[in-house]
Amino acid sequence: MKALRLIPVLALALAGCTATPPDLEPLPGSFTYGEKAAERRTQAAPGTMIQHRFLHQGTMVFETYEVQPDHSYKLVRRSVQDSWAP
Predict the structure, then answer these.
(1) In what helix (H) or strand (E) does residue 66 lie, and over which residues does it extend?
(2) Residue 18 has what pLDDT?
(3) Where are the alpha helices (DSSP H) in the chain?
(4) Neighbours of 84 (CB within 10 A)
(5) Of 10, 16, 27, 60, which residue is the least packed, with the fewest Cβ within 10 Å?
């Protein structure tokens, strides 16, 4: 009987684990900074991953964008490296 009481609690705990992470906000220098989604288009096929790197406040930023079905960009990944040698 106690096991049946644990099922809803475990289900709620697992539901919290599958939440999607918040969307990344573009930084100055990002492809999509200060733009609406409709302003930047590409001829690349939907699902294509595009890499972009730039300096932001003295750190090197590496971003990955995914081309959406409407050929706009969606920022999906970002990493920052404090010391970077070209």
Answers:
(1) strand 59-67
(2) 47
(3) 2-17
(4) 13
(5) 16
Tell me the pTM. 0.64
Evaluated on CA atoms 51, 54, 60, 61, the torsion sign reads: negative
CA distance 44 to 51: 13
Closest by Cα among 65, 45, 46, 43 to 54: 65
Which positions of the chain have pLDDT values less than 70? Answer: 1-22, 35-40, 83-86
Torsion sign, CA atoms 44, 47, 49, 54: positive
What is the residue whose two structure tokens read 């492809």?
31
pLDDT digits over 38-50, tens only? 566 778 899 999 9
